[in-house]
Amino acid sequence: METLGVLQVGVGARGQIWDEVIRACALTTPVGYVDIDEAALHAMTERYPDQEIPAFTDLEAALDHTKPDILVLVTPPETHGEQIQAACDRNIAVLAEKPLAEDLGEAVALTQLAERANIPLSLCLNFRYLEVTQGIRRMIAEETLGSPDFMHFTYIRNRDGKRADINRYPLYMEHPMLLEQSIHHFDLIRYVSDSEVRWVDCHTWNPAWSMYAHDSNVSALMSLENGVHVDYIGTWTSGWNDMQFQWRIDCPEGVILQNQLFSDLSYAPMEGDDPDFKYEKGGGGGGGEPRPVPGVKDDVAFYDDTLALLDAFARAIIDPANPIPCTARDHLYSLAVVFACIRSAEQQRRVHLDEIYRDYGIR
Fold it and tell me: The pTM is what?
């Protein structure tokens, strides 16, 4: 099968994982690196002293020299505009780290730009490709435990934004938790439910000891168009360094439970193991012990899921009969939830997504 050349822009901590993924994918090969940090570029090329992969500090020069099929953007969202414009000018497909932009209006404009140029533009919403996510999506679609009624999503973390192995720019962003982390969670909620968000009621804040310049904690209530209710809390500033994660989905015949960030998918049926117990609607009682969902393996976090996304993206470019994954157009609906949360927090009111769609011309 055809191999596609990939020019990678950004070679920091996440960029190193991307380099490994591009090399591991049977459909892609690296043709160059771009970064404004010459030391980071040197460190990347030194990983492969027997290979002559060119490195550049200027994107235009890199595009002219390498003529890639795919541009992978592992860069802050504030730089995506000029990078995507350059790709559109040269008819190059783009796979960018989320969010597409820090402003919803700019994200809409970039989506429209790519659509007019007829180039694939996708976002790295790699968590969709986790085994646990696929397992939850199947159980909901097949109504294994009946149709869900409500979800509780808990992500409590004290994220050290000064660590060398993670991006530092969120330290200075407005709404860093919403734009850099919650965007993943909202996208997962939409994805597994196959439903858009109807309204949000959100509160954001920044604890006194936070290292972030702006609100690093989020609490939100949501209602989906399919009637499912969501209770969400996500933090980047907490009083304990131990990650606390659980995604619980309540259905009429039991619950779906994801107890670890990238693994540990289980379900607990309403009926217990007692053969004499019979669940009756409205009867209460009962409850079986949680048991693992069969056929769901543990992933290598950030690697297996990213590799699966890149493979799907490459296949869509090679054969247009394959759907383009995680499109920018679809991403707008997750970003719209983020900006509905921001408006809700700032104006202290419930915000319906139709209001956001109308204001930004999304629907």
Answer: 0.94
